[in-house]
User: Fold MD-2-related lipid-recognition domain-containing protein from Anopheles epiroticus.
Amino acid sequence: MLNVNISLLLVVILGGIRLSDSYFYNGIKSGLEPDLKHSLFLDRVGQCRWQRDLPIFLSDMRIAQRNNTHYVVSGVLRVRRNITQLTTATVSIEICQNATSCRPFIDRPVAIGDVCRFVVDQRNSSLGEVLGRSVPPLVCPLVEGVYRINDALVDYKPFRYFSPHVSKLWRIDLVGESDRKRVFCVRIELYVYSWEDMLPRY
Ligand SMILES: *[C@@H]1O[C@H](CO)[C@@H](O)[C@H](O)[C@H]1NC(C)=O
Ligand SMILES: *[C@@H]1O[C@H](CO)[C@@H](O)[C@H](O)[C@H]1NC(C)=O
Ligand SMILES: *[C@@H]1O[C@H](CO)[C@@H](O)[C@H](O)[C@H]1NC(C)=O
Ligand SMILES: *[C@@H]1O[C@H](CO)[C@@H](O)[C@H](O)[C@H]1NC(C)=O
Assistant:
């Protein structure tokens, strides 16, 4: 019951801030099936704020909406040294009551193994699309330099499993290690709402 109240409170509070008249233009309809009438707000994609000195740095990406199912993201990735050793990564997912109070949604981070191989396997996915838009191209082994990603398309499909009935605010952390040292940490923050939450209240 308490949780339900907090969720409601959150919707009301966020409603005041975020769900202005333009909310349908800011959100994307995540999941077009009748049972998945969710709206996705991609809030931030960027470096973990407490880890700004890692060998790989992704400044906050610019997120723009193309239409009601697709976003485009743009940003700059700085690679501060050649990454020659095998790089492995983990993904962790958290659900949050607010920006400071989060807990793990999955027990422990999921290992995705060799990042280079993972990226090759993901060529046709959203992630592949984002990385594939880089100038110069991002290829393994990663060479020191500045990589620009321009208007890479991100669609809602990877996010359709983030249910607003579980949490409205979700965090995804992607953390990479090479030679037993952390080399990157990227955080994605997103909100999901059900259409019911978004109906105007009179
Ligand atoms: C939204 O944009 C994407 C990418 O340009 C396109 O593939 C898709 O068909 C568009 N959807 C609609 C409803 O226009
Ligand atoms: C990084 O790799 C590039 C391409 O292989 C090479 O030209 C450069 O000298 C390397 N830099 C360092 C600091 O090792
Ligand atoms: C976030 O939620 C927690 C737990 O409900 C609460 O103790 C804390 O004060 C909240 N923080 C903010 C900034 O609202
Ligand atoms: C990606 O798509 C291309 C063209 O549709 C296909 O030839 C290729 O096998 C796909 N790659 C992967 C890894 O799925």
Notes: The CA atoms of residues 91 and 174 lie 5 Å apart. Helices lie at 2-17, 23-26, 115-121, 126-132, 195-198. The pocket of 2-acetamido-2-deoxy-beta-D-glucopyranose (ligand 2) is lined by residues 82, 143-144 (CB under 6 Å).
